[in-house]
Amino acid sequence: MENNNLNNVFEETIHLDAKTFAAALTIGLGALGPAIAIGWMAGKALEAIGRNPESASKVQSSMILAIAFAEAIAVYALVVALIIMFV
After folding, report:
1. What is the pLDDT of residues 41-56, one digit of tens each?
2. What are the b/e assignments for 16-39, b being 16+ CB within 10 Å?
3. Is 57 exposed, middle or buried (0-12, 13-18, 19+ CB in 10 A)?
4. What CATH number corresponds to the domain at position 19?
5. CA 62 to CA 30: how far, in whole Å?
6. Nearest to 84 by CA among 35, 29, 42, 33
7. pLDDT category of residue 14 using cuts at 50, 70 and 90
């Protein structure tokens, strides 16, 4: 009887570890894309401002809006990771 209980505990532990790994992988990969995109957008915006300083305000507002959209993807990944962990 005790061996059966140990097997159940072991199976639950593996299940929790798999969920934790899946959630970590989800948020890790889900944040990688937006991080690369935000760095690329900021770099291109600085290049544009360097070439044409008069357009700094238009470029900056467009860049901030694009960064917000990219960051939303990371938030979606966080939501999926939380769903994996707690459901």
Report:
1. 999 999 999 999 999 9
2. eeeeeeebeebbeebbeebeebbe
3. exposed
4. 1.20.20.10
5. 23
6. 29
7. low
CB atoms < 10 A from the CB of 42, how many? 14
Give the integer Cα–Cα distance in Å for 83 and 85.
Answer: 5
Maximal C-alpha separation, the chain: 78
What are the backbone angles phi and psi of residue 12, rounded to the nearest 5°? -65, -40
Residue 40 lies in domain:
2-86
The tokens describing 47, both together, are 């290049």
Judge if pTM exceeds 0.85.
no
Dist. CA 59–CA 36, nearest whole Å: 19
